[in-house]
């Protein structure tokens, strides 16, 4: 099935990539992913790692469980998520500060998130061939996101790292009653995009079974991707 889904909301409300991963279908127990940014960085720098998962643009599985040699093969086009990735800085507070006031948070942590990265993580968690295309900065937040996605089984061969902008991030202030207030810094999600996307990105999109967009990157980029799927 081919399709494209675009979230109609322009609100930037990210959720962290608090997920577990598995290398097989649910018959195997989940493996927890450590998202502590102080613990998950590789000592050896590796740009855009994909954990060895460079999926073919069209993969195949057998739909005939019999053991004969005439099994029918059907193509399974991958899921392609083209969009945003954020580092979410979570602060648990009793109340919002007043103007000019400084208050202390009860706790705080930084987690990988962003609507696009979250969508890709879901595909990877289901052991489905999943590509994430987007932009991160060459910084600690970028490493946090790429390693979380890599550990989730997402292919990052087409994730772009830029040096002119920081990784997108958000400050999320959580109150005891469950209400939250969020401040978004677009960073690489909203800046440093080429005027025209490279052909290799278009090729991945053309061969996708489903393409997901979130409106957290420039509309001009979303339009280019949507046109590839339309014409």
UniProtKB/TrEMBL annotation:
<comment type="similarity">
    <text>Belongs to the carbohydrate kinase PfkB family.</text>
</comment>
<dbReference type="InterPro" id="IPR011611">
    <property type="entry name" value="PfkB_dom"/>
</dbReference>
<dbReference type="Pfam" id="PF00294">
    <property type="entry name" value="PfkB"/>
</dbReference>
<dbReference type="InterPro" id="IPR002173">
    <property type="entry name" value="Carboh/pur_kinase_PfkB_CS"/>
</dbReference>
<keyword id="KW-0808">Transferase</keyword>
<dbReference type="GO" id="GO:0006796">
    <property type="term" value="P:phosphate-containing compound metabolic process"/>
</dbReference>
<dbReference type="InterPro" id="IPR029056">
    <property type="entry name" value="Ribokinase-like"/>
</dbReference>
<feature type="domain" description="Carbohydrate kinase PfkB">
    <location>
        <begin position="79"/>
        <end position="227"/>
    </location>
</feature>
<dbReference type="InterPro" id="IPR002139">
    <property type="entry name" value="Ribo/fructo_kinase"/>
</dbReference>
<protein>
    <submittedName>
        <fullName>Ribokinase</fullName>
    </submittedName>
</protein>
<keyword id="KW-0418">Kinase</keyword>
<dbReference type="GO" id="GO:0016301">
    <property type="term" value="F:kinase activity"/>
</dbReference>
